[in-house]
Specification:
heterodimer, A: seven-stranded mixed sheet, globular, B: about 110 residues, mainly beta
Amino acid sequence: GAGVSQSPRYKVAKRGQDVALRCDPISGHVSLFWYQQALGQGPEFLTYFQNEAQLDKSGLPSDRFFAERPEGSVSTLKIQRTQQEDSAVYLCASSRPRGDTDTQYFGPGTRLTVL
Amino acid sequence: GENVEQHPSTLSVQEGDSAVIKCTYSDSASNYFPWYKQELGKRPQLIIDIRSNVGEKKDQRIAVTLNKTAKHFSLHITETQPEDSAVYFCAASKGKRSYIPTFGRGTSLIVHP
């Protein structure tokens, strides 16, 4: 079946612009994660949803970052008043945890460049 | 919170050699340890995982070992091939208690033909 998809794949924004990044998880996956991946680094956790509930947003770096998943499926990560330090790849992952095991399936990411 | 250290940051081997990547974690409550492979410009993909009630798991040329006492786990790739070249990430999570993983910083594996 279809995997996790993200759009756009590439986004160039001028500093101060607002951006919205979309994630379409695998159908039936209740868990959805957003990560920020800087060049040469591992994914850094941003926020986590279980269905429509945002259970953890401790990784969001500032109040300019906002995420939602209103119907428990598609999710949007919004960044307001973008700054150069926001430039990174934003990865979305979905999963259907079973017991202690949680295999996360990643999307291709959105590469955000803030000029 | 959890802290995951991964070494080495770069690993260069000849085709056919073995490669070992090591990770340590700090939170003894962590009980699920996946490994991801990320090729250049592509998404991370799970290659193997291990739960804390198991000491070793093998899948063809890939194996993972876990030492709960020492809080470290390792990825072993035997008979490396050029297509194994990628960045490998380890991660640790607390399973049902928290599915949020903490990732290592990655190891860039280069397999020379």
